[in-house]
Amino acid sequence: MYGNNIYYDPEKFGFEVVGNIDWSEPCYDFDMTVVWKSKRGEYWVASDSGCSCPSPFEDTKVDDLDGPYNKKALRSKIDYMIKEHSGEYSYGYGEAELRKQAREILDRIK
Fold first, then answer.
1. Spatial separation of the C-alpha atoms in residues 84 and 94, rounded to whole Å
2. Would the CA dihedral through 71, 72, 76, 77 be positive or negative?
3. What are the pLDDT digits (tens) for 39-70?
4. Helices 71-85 and 95-107 meet at what angle, rounded to 10?
5. Residues 75-106: pLDDT tens digits?
């Protein structure tokens, strides 16, 4: 459906989506960070945002991903990103909601 899109077809790239953090409430747009896991057990991260016209990560290539991270480094990366985004937008999620989303991701990688 989306062709070669790492978000919708991660298996074509040797990845699986672990989860994502939505930085703000969707309103005909997206602002998210996704965590992927490679077949080798490494974690990769990328962020994308836009209006409703483009698909998330439609122009993202494997080389655009940030990583690789092990579990400990991924936890640190996510914590840093939450601190960076907390209170960034008036329509953004608060720190408690962002930490909840992060916890759901991190619980999957125990």
1. 12
2. negative
3. 999 999 999 999 888 889 999 999 999 999 99
4. 160
5. 999 999 998 887 665 567 888 889 999 999 99
Contact predicate 23/88, CB 8 Å: yes
pTM for this predicted structure:
0.88
Tokens at residue 38, please? Answer: 């490679």
User: How far, in Å, CA of 39 to CA of 73, rounded?
Assistant: 18
Strands (E), the chain: 15-22, 29-38, 43-51, 66-69
* Domain boundaries, given as residue ranges, for the chain: 10-107
Q: Are 28 and 2 in contact (CB under 8 A)?
A: no
Predicted local confidence at residue 109, as pLDDT: 87
**Which residue pairs, CB below 8 angstroms and at least 24 apart, start in 78-82?**
78/21, 78/35, 78/45, 78/102, 78/105, 78/106, 81/21, 81/33, 82/21
Hey, is 67 helix, strand or coil? strand
For tokens 């991190």, the residue is 106
